[in-house]
């Protein structure tokens, strides 16, 4: 199902939000079953403009604004998926997904199972997540672990424009429900040459961002850049850091994670979610179960704190892991 | 109390067996069709309780007394339409066309009862309350977007109409002009909580007003009125005129489930009062008075129903128990590496 980018692809410089917009346009163009909906996605083009121009191009039947009710949006998407469409819903911020968790937990991930394969929900729910841009209260949450704990749903979190486009197209074409979290911090802060036209990046395959022999840093989404900066700083001190961008947390590419940890013997897991029960803990557990013999130091987690994300601009960066904190964790596992 | 109020209540055949709306009376073949459907689903309800007592059925929520509300609504659909029943709506699913053997299997917790037949658009009985209402909107919107005239019919109880998603769905359906028919079976109780504790409202059909959609209040024990209202609502939806909320005013004369003891929370007086309004008895009396039905018809129907049910149970008896590894089937189209690994773990466990 996956087509690699052409060998000499035509490319265009894009931000992540432009790449997402491009992916949605391609999906709408290719498959009449694709429908994009949510609050403000139509006329306004979404709060971050991810759906900009799509209603004008594809019409208000395919790209439409809904009433303001997250359970209604996700629940309606379930029905649309059951009845043969490919719904792509937008929730304005991942922190606003909570009213829809009843749908997620009760139904979204269960349909194929509870109908023994008779029905399935090929839905994508897109939601911006994460901090670093000084949003108001409750706009910066990272609830990916809550979703990843739900059987039957996939969770994708891109970290580059090229990945965002290819992963989103793969998510839309996937027969199962996918939650697609987009780091707000990355929407416009990174630009790169993105292949034109249709391509997909398979769900469940991690990307090795930088190679190194001493420490593996496992992360995703908005923390990839932070970890890369820490890796660069460590390299200046002679420490070889391998940064792994998971891209999708369910399915988890344990193979790539474990191969790297077996090579380096040290692991640091970085997320911006609260510490206790986060997805970083799952990764640490997988490493402990499968590769403890290879470990030269305990796995260290670098995360947010077990407190609500602070909406206080001056101290926000204290909550959200920064390169210095990741660098300290790298030193810690090196010094053990 | 809400369920005693007859204000604004659509009736064709009242509880005394009198036709109060002759203009809405259907032809004789429709009347006997409605009667046969109620008798058939009543048999299932009665036998399901017996099978449970024999240990041959799991926990079952009876719907006895609500046959008119269930059959009268579901019979307004074709198999191209969607039916989204709650656990209480086995009767509606049977009337819609769900095979008895599948239904028995479902309530026996067999996977054979979970795989709904390909030729019907019925979803498995919903256990969480009101969560299927937004799904009905989605099914309806999808049908409209794909250019069909198919509709979605979803059920809820008076208790379920307290849930937020009931209100979200009605609002969505109105805003998006979704071809939906929402059936609110006001059966007086949400387990032990009476309607008057659920809400200060005394006419739940008026909730539709808040969403700009029509609300209809029907005598839920008068299948002629129920069928009329449901057929009208389905026809409106097919004409792209949008959703309707139908409140069927009825009563749960049976317990919440076969494990429930209603004597803890209600007196039998009210139940007896409602038993006197029995929908099956009411239509039978009318049909006999009109010489449209007699003992010979009744005996023939009874044999037919018993034969169908017994054959279905025999068929369900042949369905094998699921194998333990079926736990991991149908989670995703393709199992993830994690599920594959857990499958191997499970096989080792089972074989150990």
TrEMBL record, chain A:
InterPro entries: THDP-binding (IPR029061), Transketo_C/PFOR_II (IPR009014), Transketolase-like_Pyr-bd (IPR005475), Transketolase_C (IPR033248). Pfam families: Transket_pyr, Transketolase_C. Its EC number is 1.2.4.1. One of its GO terms (molecular function) is pyruvate dehydrogenase (acetyl-transferring) activity. Coiled coil: none annotated. The keyword Oxidoreductase applies. Keywords: Oxidoreductase, Pyruvate, Thiamine pyrophosphate. The keyword Mitochondrion does not apply. Residues 14-189 form the Transketolase-like pyrimidine-binding domain. SUPFAM superfamilies: Thiamin diphosphate-binding fold (THDP-binding) (SSF52518), TK C-terminal domain-like (SSF52922). Its cofactor is thiamine diphosphate. Gene3D superfamilies: 3.40.50.920, 3.40.50.970. PANTHER family: PYRUVATE DEHYDROGENASE E1 COMPONENT BETA SUBUNIT, PYRUVATE DEHYDROGENASE E1 COMPONENT SUBUNIT BETA. Heterotetramer of two alpha and two beta chains. Directly associated with ODBA in the E1 complex. This is Pyruvate dehydrogenase (Acetyl-transferring).
Automatic annotation (TrEMBL), chain B:
Residues 36-324 form the Dehydrogenase E1 component domain. InterPro entries: Alpha-ketoacid_DH_E1_comp (IPR050771), DH_E1 (IPR001017), PdhA/BkdA (IPR017596), THDP-binding (IPR029061). NCBIfam families: PDH_E1_alph_x. Its EC number is 1.2.4.1. The pyruvate dehydrogenase complex catalyzes the overall conversion of pyruvate to acetyl-CoA and CO(2). It contains multiple copies of three enzymatic components: pyruvate dehydrogenase (E1), dihydrolipoamide acetyltransferase (E2) and lipoamide dehydrogenase (E3). One of its GO terms (molecular function) is pyruvate dehydrogenase (acetyl-transferring) activity. It is an enzyme of class 1 (oxidoreductase). SUPFAM superfamilies: Thiamin diphosphate-binding fold (THDP-binding). This is Pyruvate dehydrogenase E1 component subunit alpha. It holds the Pfam family E1_dh. One of its GO terms (biological process) is branched-chain amino acid catabolic process. It catalyses: N(6)-[(R)-lipoyl]-L-lysyl-[protein] + pyruvate + H(+) = N(6)-[(R)-S(8)-acetyldihydrolipoyl]-L-lysyl-[protein] + CO2. It comes from Deinococcus maricopensis (strain DSM 21211 / LMG 22137 / NRRL B-23946 / LB-34). Keywords: Oxidoreductase, Pyruvate, Thiamine pyrophosphate. Heterodimer of an alpha and a beta chain. Its cofactor is thiamine diphosphate. Transmembrane segments: none annotated.
